Amino acid sequence: MANVQREPLCLVRGSINIDEFFHVPTVVQPGETLSSTHFERRAGGKGANQASAVAKAGARVKLIGAVGEDGMHLVQGLRTIGVDVSDVVIDDSEPTGRAIIQLTPEGENCIILHKGANFLSTPPLLAAPDAHPGLSYTHLLLQNEVPWDATVAYLSHASSIGATTVWNPSPLPTPAQLQAFPWASLSWLVVNEGEVRGLLAALGAHAPGGAGGPVAQASALLQTLHAQRGFAAVSIVCTLGAHGLVALLPHNDTVHVPAAKLDGPVRDTTGAGDCFAGYFVAGLMHARELSPEDVRSALVRAVEAAGLCVQRPGAVESIPLREEVEKRLSSQ
After folding, report:
1. What local confidence, expressed as pLDDT, does residue 108 receive?
2. Is 240 annotated as a binding residue?
3. Active-site residue (options: 91, 130, 274, 294)
4. Domain range for residue 304?
5. Where are the beta strands (DSSP E) in the chain?
6. Which strands form 38-44's sheet, in the order they lie side by side?
7. Which of 44, 100, 141, 295 can pair with 19 through a Cys bridge, CB separation 3.0 to 4.6 Å?
8. Model's pTM, two decimal places?
9. Is 174 annotated as a binding residue?
10. How does residue 217 score in pLDDT terms, banded at 50, 70 and 90?
11. Does the residue 212 lie in any domain?
C-alpha cells in the first residue's frame, strides 16, 4: 500500500504520566518498609516517552493522549522538544496518570501505574481516529497504557490507510485480548524476551527448549511466534538487554544486533525500551526503502540510543538527541 503523504509523520496514541522516582537500596519486599534515599518527579508515560524519542531522533511526530490539569507542564515540555501536542486533551475530571517507580543504584526498577486521565474516552478522538477526519499520518506507534478499544481502533484505522503500524505490547495484555488481536493489521511487533514467552503462552503455543545461548534461544522463540496464525506479514523485534536484539524481518531474514558498549554505569532503565521503540520508528521513517540494510541501520541506531539512555536518569529527559547518537556511532 502507498503511504498517505510524502513527508513521514508518526502518530503516537499513548499515555502521558508523571513519573515519581523513589531511589532505594533494593526493591521493597512484601511486609517490608524501606526509606528512599532520594525522590524525583519527572515526565513519563510510554506514549510521551516514545513520542519524545521519535522527535529527538529528528522525525515528525504527533501525540494523542490526555492529562489532568496537573499535567499541563508535561504538555509544554513535549511541545518544547518538537512533539505535536495540539490534540492532547487537558481534562479537569481526572488527574494525570502516575508511575510510582522504585529505582536501585544498579538502575533496576519496579513500577506501579495509576491510569488517571490516560483512560479517558472523551472527547471522541481519544477513542477512535475517525473523530478527526483530517488526521493523516504514515506511521502509527502504539503501546498498552491506554484503553484497549482505542488501541485496536487506531490500529484498524492505520491499516486501512496503508500506514506502517508498530506495537509495543507493554504492559502485556490479557490472554483473551491477545487471542482476539488483529495481528494481520500489524507491520512491526517490538517486544522483549519475557513478552515473547507471554505471547506464546497466551496464544496456546509451546515455547521451544533452551538450547544454545540467549540469541539462539530468542531466534527460536521468534520463529515459533511467527508461525502462529495472523503473523505471516508481521516483522518482530525482540530486545535482549545486554545481549542486544534479534529481529525477524520480511522474507524470514534474521538479524542480530549486539548491545551498545556503555561508557559508564547503568543509572536508570525506565525509559530504555521506549527510547528504543521511538528511535526505531524514526529510522523506518527516514529510510527510503525498507531493505534489510535499512532496517538494520534503524535497529543499530535504536540500540545506541537506548545505550545512551540507560546511563542517564529519568525517562523523557534521558532520551538522547540524534546528534549524540550519530557522534557515538561515528566514534566506533
Report:
1. 87
2. yes
3. 274
4. 10-15+46-88+127-330
5. 10-13, 17-23, 38-44, 61-64, 66-68, 89-91, 97-103, 109-114, 139-142, 164-167, 188-192, 235-239, 245-248, 254-257
6. 38-44, 17-23, 97-103, 109-114
7. 44
8. 0.93
9. no
10. very high
11. yes
